[in-house]
Design a protein that fits this description.
4-stranded antiparallel β-sheet
């Protein structure tokens, strides 16, 4: 038997029958990390054991592939790798695509070899005349990739993944060979200039603001529940890890997180209570177990919750309103806000949007299953948070442009149950009707906002204050960030707001907490995006214009 396929060619219609099953090479090729590579295999059942050449029987926990060519076979299984997360079961061995030429497999049964220097991949049966088992260069040229498996329920790992660059290798706890980028410098001219700018920020009596870290394009933040490492999303291609090693409340190191991965608009970052980091991209959700510990190196444990194209339909991807945010709810599910891309959408879009959660909030299990629409009628929320007291979900919403300087208002909303509609696009903000839908009947039961904010101030991230550093009147209330207007004749925003709650859990009157990033002549010296709390109770503020994170403290 001999199969020869040029590198990069599609294996349409080619299959190979070994053992008891016929396996399509076209399907198997979907697991390959490089074009033109194959594996022909028997599929072993869950819980079976492989008899290896050394006489040992090695057990595995999920379906794997046993490569068989004539009299030579190998089971792609190894002893478990070093365990770095809890008590994960051993992942399965993958024959690596090495950069230094011919490599022999180092575990499993048989002797497979890879020749990466060949222009084509040729699979030989060693029993074929002229090919001897003693000649390794002629015996077999084969790249075999096993489907890695982890059977921990909290971790998302499909049985077979399509090629996703280094993501599949990281999920198998394998090195990618990625060089770690240099850390972001934390001192110098820029840091000095930002410290001078912070002298203009006005705060209530007893509070002070300081530069915490220089983080390029800093957007939404997630503070690790164990070591307090701050993970920072961006609207570009990087996520950053910010570390204060000596706990002097100034960052010692800022570096790119998971540089071996390619991100696309990784704005949304959030932690589960047990320390799993989630990153919500434009159209994908990723999961990083033990991110606070793996982040020290370029390779981290990484899995897909929703693969590319499964958060929203690919046809609806846009450059506008696609900065996602996420939170883990009290029910253990992941909640993700999905802004819709238009100022006001066309009516023919509404059915699709309502079904898929675009212009709303969706939720799903932490493994990506059971995704459903939680809320609709939301234009573009870039800030969601659960009230730890009554477990309700609060979120900001940015409202319709082009209706004037002072209408419609921005919003802070409260969702008390699944299935609620918050009024967009019938309302452009608050109770102001949009021109496009002013003659259409408003759906029954629309929920009005808890707070009507200044029009066009661009309300983004928010959080409930659960610390004890700040005075009593701030405890249990909402801090939120206003990014600042872009289309108002007189700019507004670029400040931190505070909204106390009434005894019944509803919002009281909002007040300005920190301001001064918008100068008197209308120039932005910073634009706050998100707020987060460090474990000592101080408040972090991210600024994507300045590329910085500030820390607000009290009484020190």
């Amino acid at each position: 038997m001999r199969i020869e396929v040029p590198g990069g060619a599609e294996a349409q219609g080619i299959g190979a029958s070994f053992g008891s099953q016929h396996i399509s090479l076209t399907e198997l090729r979907k697991t390959m990390p490089f074009p033109g590579s194959f594996v022909a295999a028997d599929r072993l059942n869950q819980g079976a054991a492989a008899e290896c050449g050394d006489g040992e029987r090695r057990r595995f926990q999920r379906t794997i592939l046993r490569v068989s060519i004539g009299s030579i076979s190998t089971s792609a299984i190894c002893d478990p790798p070093p365990v770095g997360v809890g008590s994960l079961p051993g992942s399965l061995h993958r024959f690596a695509w090495h950069a230094d030429g011919l490599r022999r497999s180092n575990c499993g049964c048989g002797a497979l070899e890879v020749d990466e220097t060949a222009d084509s991949l040729t699979i030989h049966d060693p029993s074929e005349p002229g090919v001897t088992a003693e000649d390794p260069m002629k015996r077999l040229l084969l790249a075999a990739v096993s489907a890695a498996a982890l059977s921990v329920p909290a971790f998302a790992q499909p049985a077979v993944q399509s090629p996703t660059g280094n993501l599949e290798r990281l999920g198998n706890f394998q090195s990618t060979g990625t060089e770690e980028p240099k850390p972001i410098p934390q001192e110098g001219r820029k840091a000095d200039a930002l410290r001078r700018n912070l002298q203009s920020i006005k705060l209530p009596q007893g509070f002070k603001i300081e530069l915490y870290a220089l983080v390029p394009d800093a957007r939404h933040m997630a503070v690790g529940p164990n070591a307090g490492v701050v993970f920072v999303g961006t609207r570009k291609k990087n996520v950053y890890a910010v570390t204060d090693r000596d706990k002097d409340r100034v960052a010692d190191e800022v570096k790119v997180f998971a540089p071996s991965l390619s991100f696309n608009l990784p704005n949304g970052v959030c932690f589960s209570p047990d320390g799993v980091l989630y990153v919500a991209e434009q159209n994908r959700v990723l999961q990083f177990p033990a991110a606070e510990f793996f982040y020290e190196g370029p390779d981290v444990a990484a899995f897909q919750v929703l693969k590319q194209g499964d958060l929203i339909p690919a046809s609806e991807e846009s450059y506008n309103h696609t900065a996602r945010v996420c939170r883990i709810g009290p029910d253990g599910k992941i909640y993700v806000a999905l802004g819709q891309p238009f100022n006001v959408p066309a009516k023919e879009k509404l059915d699709l949007y309502n079904r898929t959660g675009i212009g709303g909030i969706v939720r799903m299990d932490q493994d990506g299953k059971n995704k459903e629409v939680f809320a609709t009628g939301v234009r573009n929320s870039v800030g969601i948070e659960f009230n730890p007291g009554d477990k309700t979900l609060w979120f900001t919403d940015n409202q319709v442009d082009g209706m004037g300087d002072d209408i419609p208002p921005g919003e802070i909303n409260r969702a008390t149950q699944a299935g609620q509609n918050f009024g967009f696009p019938w309302y452009g903000g608050g109770t102001v009707r949009t021109t496009e839908y002013k003659n259409d009947p408003v759906p029954a039961g629309v929920v009005n906002p808890q707070v009507e904010m200044t029009a066009h101030a661009a309300d983004l991230g928010l959080m409930f204050y659960t610390g004890t550093m700040f005075p009593q009147q701030y405890r249990g209330g909402i801090f939120s960030a206003q990014h600042g207007s872009w289309n108002r004749t007189k700019p507004v925003g670029a400040r931190i707001m505070f909204t106390p709650l009434k005894p019944d859990g509803t919002a009281d009157k909002t007040q300005v907490f920190a301001e001064g990033w918008l100068t008197e002549n209308g120039e932005y010296i910073g634009r706050p995006v998100d707020v987060a709390m460090l474990r000592d109770g101080s408040l972090l503020v991210s600024d994507d214009t300045a590329g910085a994170i500030y820390r607000i403290s009290y009484g020190q």
